[in-house]
Design goal:
- The chain is mainly β.
- The protein has no helices and eleven strands.
- The mean pLDDT is 96.
Length: 118
């Protein structure tokens, strides 16, 4: 069974930084794709950043130059968020596509709240 555990959210002033983490555990042969999404109250979930293995990384226009998605060798995916703005306030979710004995499947983290004060 694969589990994703997110951490790193919190309250920060505008202009500050946060780093979100998404640790994947369980049987993982490979990570095929990773992404971060966010959802503010009353709005649909939107893509923030996404990357496929060996492919390009895409960012929402609103976060380009401020956010960076990355991954380490221990199956943890990160979202470094700099120059945060109040409009970045949302619940952030990671999504990872993993290949294991069950084939290729998508998994979601539980979400972590990011609040940016003005």
């Amino acid at each position: 069974q694969v589990q994703l555990v997110e951490s790193g959210g919190g309250l920060v002033q505008a202009g500050g930084s946060l780093r979100l983490s998404c640790a994947a555990s369980g049987t993982i042969f490979s990570i095929n794709a990773m992404g971060w999404y966010r959802q503010a109250p009353g709005t649909p979930r939107e893509l923030v950043a996404a990357s496929t293995s060996g492919g390009p990384t895409n960012y929402a226009d609103s976060v380009k130059g401020r956010f960076t998605i990355s991954r380490d060798a221990k199956n943890t995916v990160y979202l470094q968020m700099n120059s945060l703005k109040p409009e970045d306030t949302a619940v952030y979710y990671c999504k990872i596509t993993i290949t294991n004995w069950r084939g290729r499947n998508e998994y979601w983290g539980q979400g972590t709240q990011v609040t940016v004060s003005s």
